[in-house]
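Justification of computing resources. Each target in the renewal requires a structure prediction run like the one illustrated here; the chain below, 418 residues long, is used simply to show the kind of job we budget for.
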Amino acid sequence: MATAAVLDPLVPGQALAPIDVSLPELYAEDRWQDLFRQLRAQAPIQYVPESGFGPYWSVTTYKPIVHIEALPKIFSSDWQLGGIAISGDPALFAQHNMREPMFIAMDPPLHTAPRRAVAPSFGPSEVAAMKAEVQQRTGELLDNLPIGQPFDWVQRVSIELTTGMLAKLFGYPWEHRHHLTEWSDYGGDVEMIKNPDTVEVRIAKMQEMGMAFAALWQDRMANPGKDLVSVMLQSPAMRDMPPEEFIGNLILLIVGGNDTTRNSMSAYAYGLSQYPAERAKLEADPALIPNAVQELIRWQTPLSHMRRTVTEDTDVAGVPMKKGDKVVMWYLSANRDESVFEDGEAIRVDRPNARRHLSFGYGIHRCVGARVAELQLVTLLEEMAKRRLRVNVLAEPVRVPACFVHGYKSLQVQLSRY
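Resulting structure tokens:
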């Protein structure tokens, strides 16, 4: 996939021709691995002058990403500069009046207060209190799945469990919970933003979501509860948000709450089928489940990248970057960095450092809902183990054709007992 270029061996990151790893077909066809391996080995920080999202710096190894994440003043998340995804374009935002500020796409001090407002809802005691309800809902779902008959794991398990959790967190009407999945898919689709024919469709869907939650907001003003909308309403930092910031934070919480968990659940089904010896190890020793969950999140990396914008001339590992440059941190590659994760392409359910993965980010923007995602995944594996259920994959999955959300559209499986 390398493009032709005149190379200068003295220029850092130019040991090989630019490789654009933002191409959607790489992910739809699951053939990104060799390209990232090549980049890690030969050009871990490389300038890509042309792509469907414009020029960008591609950062593919672990240590430089941690360095960038630790310096939010120099590497900005500000949505007005382009935000957190490779697709972010201030000119495009202005053209379509796309104002969706969210606290993950803000820098301190604006970032700090809204994050602090919602963080207690995802604290250790709050998450522990969710355990029994998550167990019940997961167990009931598994007990209603067919044994020995084909079905779509993504639709019947991954989407159903994550959508149910989102509905509970937001206090969203249960009978309409599948709207949350639809809005999440539109909100996280970077290809729609790039394409002028589809960006208006995405805007319309986000407005639809905003109207639905505006009605929920009004209801919570009269009938406050413990859900996230009530928390936002009762917080001095968030209760007077302008409508576009309200919508932006909803997109953040819905996409973040949906995609990480949903695609890791699908990775459990698909990934362990690719490593039957590891699956057998896990089946023989359920005590490995918490570590296996971290390993599956690492191996899948549900969000392939995060983006930052350089605010002043700087350098990373000796590579000079200019103010205004777009920097894309490929978590998907860093989670396979051979200097950190030995044999990182493989699933190892007892990997001793699995928890070092970057799938939840690093630093001030680390995923605020990580504990909820872990709870749901651990519970699914525990309830599968209690029933001695095994997922047998029947065909290759249909994958999301995009470089941001790294996931599955469908996965045909059947269950058996072991």
